[in-house]
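May I ask for a sample protein chain and its fold as tokens?
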Amino acid sequence: MEYQVTLLIVLLNPPNGMLYCLQNDNGRFIFTTMSTGDDIVFEFQTVVKPNQRTKKPNFTGPFAQGAPGKRFFYINIGQLAGQKDTPWQRRAKVWINGWPRYVKPSPKEITWQMVHEVATDPGKVLMTRYQGMADDGGPSLHGASG
């Protein structure tokens, strides 16, 4: 069975004056926005179906990156989003499942119950958020769902 769900990626407090965009699987930039220092929200549809091997939720669609058991979405930042007047050239991996060991604490797994609730109630979304500013004051490179 497949479900179409709305997913929100929220970047908390990203650096001001930085260009951000979501990257699709063809390498195109979608939803490009300039940061004002306020949270940035990317909202899009994704299809969730069973991972053939594990039967866990597998996020697919034009924004899903990585292998079925290790899915993430790319947020391109600064020069990688098309901004010419910045020294920053970064791309954040926003993990949705199969987090690498360096993502601490490991976020809660998205369950089929969560997917079903979001797919059947138009007022609900799956949301992930991460700190948009790194310790060095620049844009953060890694995001974890939660």
About this structure: The chain has one domain: 3-144. Residues 112-120 form the longest helix (9 residues). The CA atoms of residues 55 and 146 lie 21 Å apart.
